[in-house]
Amino acid sequence: MENDSIVLYPSQGRGHLFVTIELGNRLLAQYPSFSIHIIISTAPSQVPVSATELSAAVTGPSISFHHLPPTSLSKTYTPQQAPDLSYDLAELSNPKLHESLLKISETSVVKALIIDFFNTSAFQVSSQLEIPTYFFFTSGAGALAVFLYFPTIHEHARKSLKDLDGYQIEVPGLPPVPSIAMPVAMLDRTTEVYHCFMKTALQFTKCDGIILNSFELLEKRMIDSILNRDCTPGMKTPPLYCIGPVITNGDSVPPRRHECLTWLDSQPSRSVVFLCFGSTGVFSSKQLNEIAVALETSNVRFLWVVRKPPQSDQDPTLKSFLPHGFVSRTNDRGVIVDNWAPQVEVLSHDSVGAFVTHCGWNSILEAVRAGVPMLAWPLYAEQKLNRVFLVEEMKVALWVAESDKDGLVSASELEKRLTELLDSEKGREVRKRVEIMRDGAIAAMREGESSTVALKKLILSLKQEHRRELCCDSK
Ligand code: UDP
Asked: Rounded CA gap, 372 and 354, in Å?
């Protein structure tokens, strides 16, 4: 007898891939009869994720990976054009996606395709093949509310948001959002990527369901606003499944425990500030210098994940980007990790007391789940939106302010915020609040509680979708 398959199709990039694998793990843990297929597309400029890493992220036997053959892109993209790249890659990958889905359907019934935000163009394939299609939204309810409301924002603003200095966007259920907090791709209505976002927003209202990596307590007002259809006036809102927090189990590869964890073992409880800026966050050498000065003058214990500034391949060591003597002056209370630390394990370590984050959604959830208060310092994508919600709504972080239009954060600003978070009434309030959210996150995943109930409802929906016959000659 044919089994039921669910196909997951994350966008390019580690942040999207690993959380999607974890979604597959969750679906299987709840309903082991599914076969989960994960389709991976890799941008030509990207280092493919190794098979060892992929299999380490999988907790059950019924997950298989399908790598789409490399696609050549006709242009080059700057790091700021990551959304353009993701959209273009997805569009060009459609013929291969089509083939993959047909192949999977030879041995199983494809019950649903679950796609990432940037893979909207996959709808062309899934509707042709008549496969029910869900979005897995890998950011929070606040960002989702903004995206759903985007067509209305477009109508109200009448001009590109970049040209509306000081404009505050009012989205139902959200604190006011300054237009400059919007993702860069949504600022200029003359660009192609702006219209891709618009198309995606409209497509959200037509899908079979939206799976959200969040939980009710964390974003109650925003979730209610989406459920009440306040963000999609005049349109349909598909079922919303808040099944989070979906968090990866951490870096299981290599098996050896990372030495920064051993260092943390020797530090006092909640004493260490962890600074880490996502899978791709990089700073100029000027900015690295400001951070180093703040860490030195504030006298805090720290664990800092540092990458060399862009275009610095010829420079041999990280140290050359830091103030002279910084490492030796701080090595009794600070550790620098080159490029990558096992973040989930670090945040869960008892010695970590604060997290300076770029506000990527996975990082936020990992900190919330570990009960670690944050300093919010966004860099790219929807992270400036996330900062607004973290500080104004969830109240689990303090705001780090940029001092110029290039986004530089001064040493004195960072030092002030570190002191505020670690040693002030306001900081203690933030810690209390994040601990409440941590407990809420743990509770939401229990049997009978909100995220588990939502996951069960999702599975019911995935199971019940009637398969529409796959038509093999519809290529
Ligand atoms: N991460 C990590 N070690 C690092 C940097 C990042 O383990 O040194 C992980 C982090 O735990 C998170 C993911 O990479 O799961 C980053 O995802 P996020 O959504 O926070 O940011 P993105 O990289 O997508 O901007």
From this structure: 6
Q: Whose CA is nearest to atom 2 of ligand 1?
A: 343
Q: Is pLDDT of 276 > 70?
A: yes
Closest CA to 218 of 243, 201, 248: 243
The pLDDT > 90 percentage for the chain reads 82
Ligand 1 atom nearest residue 360's Cα: 20
pLDDT at 470 over 70: no
How many angstroms separate the first and last alpha carbons of the chain?
26
In degrees and rounded to multiples of 5, residue 109 shows phi and psi of: -95, 120
pLDDT for residue 436 is more than 50: yes
Given 3.40.50.2000, 3.30.565.10, 3.50.50.60, 3.40.190.10, which CATH number is that of 259-441? 3.40.50.2000
Closest atom of ligand 1 to 279 CA is 23
Protein residue whose Cα sits closest to atom 7 of ligand 1? 343
pLDDT value, residue 313: 62
Atom of ligand 1 nearest to the CA of 381: 25
Give the residue, by CA position, lying nearest to ligand 1 atom 24.
15
Helix axes 82-92, 94-107, angle to 10 degrees: 50
Q: How far apart are CA 224 and CA 221, in angstroms?
A: 5
Ligand 1 atom closest to the Cα of residue 363 is 20
Question: Nearest to residue 149, comparing CAs of 116, 182, 113, 188?
Answer: 182
In the predicted model, is pLDDT for residue 252 greater than 70? Answer: no
The answer to whether 361 and 373 are in contact (CB under 8 A) is no
Atom in ligand 1 nearest the alpha carbon of residue 337: 8
Question: Does the pLDDT value for residue 1 go beyond 70?
Answer: no
Q: Any residues with Cβ below 6 Å from ligand 1, and which?
A: 15, 248, 251, 276, 278-280, 305, 340-344, 360-363, 366
Over the stretch 7-50, which tens digit does the pLDDT of each residue have?
A: 999 998 888 999 999 999 999 999 999 999 999 998 887 888 89
Q: Which CATH class is domain 3-249+446-463?
A: alpha beta
Spell out the domain ranges in the chain.
3-249+446-463, 259-441
Query: pLDDT (tens digit, 9 = 90+) per residue, 281-301?
Result: 999 999 999 999 999 999 999
Ligand 1 centroid–CA 475 distance in Å is 37
| Domains 3-249+446-463 and 259-441 agree in fold | yes
Tokens of 104: 């999977």
Pocket test for ligand 1, best of 343, 368, 369, 380 (most atoms within 8 A of CB): 343
